[in-house]
Each structure stands twice: as C-alpha cells, then as structure tokens.
Backbone:
C-alpha cells in the first residue's frame, strides 16, 4: 500500500505539472489573441475564400493544434489528480481511524473542548468542520442540494480536516474541476451528520454554487 506521504508527493508533482500545462495553454492562447482574437474557431479565410492577410495563419494553426493536445493532456491529468485526492483522503481516514481506536479510552477527556462542531460517526471516527455556509441563494445549486445557512462542512469531496490547507482556494479548485459532476459532502447540522450531493453548475446567479463559504474559526 502506498503511504500517505508518497501519495501526497505524487499529488504535489501532478499539481505542478497541471500548472505548467495551464501556463502553456495560456501562452498559445495569447498567440490567438494577438491574431485578431481569432480563437479556436475563427475563420482563417476572408469573405472571398482567400487566406486572411491580417493574421499569421501558420502560427494560429500551430497554436490551435498545441492547445488541443495540451487540453487533452490536462483533462487526463485532472482525472489522475482526482483519483489521487480520493486515495489520499482514504489513507488519511484509515490513519485517523487507527489512531482513534488506539486512543479510544482517552476520548471522553476531549468532549466539548473544540470550538468547531465535531461529531462522531459510528461512535469511532470524529468528523470536524472545515468550512461554514453563511448564505445560500434562492434557486442556486447549493439550495437545490439541500444546503442551508449555518451548515458546517466536514468533508468537501476528497477534502477533510486531515488534508485541508485552510485556504478556500482548494475548495474552489475542487468546484471548478468538478463542474457539472457530483461532489459528496458531509455536512454537520444540529449535531447531525448529513450526506449531501452538490453539483456545481452555471445558473442565473453568481458562481457555480450560489452560496457563501467561510473558514471555520
């Protein structure tokens, strides 16, 4: 079995590769912008069917081809990153369960000591909130999923208290990468643990979720 550190190292390496791919895609995108913002589908011939003389057709074609290849690589890389994130999450939970089992007799001493909501699942594995919902827009994907203001989220996809870096950008990254896909959430509400499925998507309001998320203090 791959250890957590090994999985984390692989994930960090892939994230660096992802960033490099995005830089390359942006660079080729700039070439398209510089050529009359022709984009990926703009015409390369004029109204009479002759090659346009206001753009560098060779560079545009080369940039488009490179962007397609890089986007395919980026898509495949994101699938691998998501798999590793789930693996890291599973390893962290297994490690936490082992630790909690060995320290079971000491759990009573820590009851109520945390300011953040903490609930036990099956009496063994505690889940701790990492972010909090402060507002949910009417008709938003968040409301359709069943989220409410003041809900606290212990697990957002593969992110939980064991691997959360206390930066909302990591939550945003999951949302962007999982657009139109199902994200499992573990929500703490009134000392209950709820399993909710959230699907980030475009809607008439702002963002992909339609809710305000803040860090738990």
Residues:
């Amino acid at each position: 079995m791959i250890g957590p550190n090994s999985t984390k190292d692989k994930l960090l390496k892939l994230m660096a590769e992802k960033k490099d791919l995005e830089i390359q895609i942006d660079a080729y995108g700039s070439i398209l912008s510089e050529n009359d913002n022709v984009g990926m589908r703009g015409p390369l011939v004029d109204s009479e069917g002759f090659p346009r003389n206001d753009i560098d057709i060779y560079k545009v074609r080369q940039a488009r081809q490179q962007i397609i290849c890089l986007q395919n690589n980026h898509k495949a890389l994101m699938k691998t990153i998501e798999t590793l994130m789930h693996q890291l999450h599973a390893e962290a939970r297994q490690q936490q369960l082992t630790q909690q089992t060995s320290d079971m007799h000491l759990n009573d001493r820590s009851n109520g000591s945390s300011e953040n909501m903490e609930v036990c699942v099956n009496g063994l594995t505690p889940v701790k909130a990492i972010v909090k919902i402060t507002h949910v827009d009417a008709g938003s994907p968040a409301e359709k999923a069943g989220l409410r203001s003041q809900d606290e989220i212990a697990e957002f996809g593969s992110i939980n208290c064991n691997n959360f870096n206390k930066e909302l950008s990591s939550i945003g990254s999951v949302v962007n990468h999982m657009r139109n896909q199902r994200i499992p959430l573990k929500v703490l509400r009134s000392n209950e643990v709820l399993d909710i499925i959230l699907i980030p998507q475009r809607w008439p309001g702002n963002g992909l979720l339609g809710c305000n998320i803040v860090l738990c203090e």
User: Anything to note?
Assistant: The first strand starts at residue 118 and ends at 121. The beta strands are 118-121, 125-128, 131-136, 152-156, 183-189, 192-198, 211-215. The CA atoms of residues 133 and 213 lie 5 Å apart.
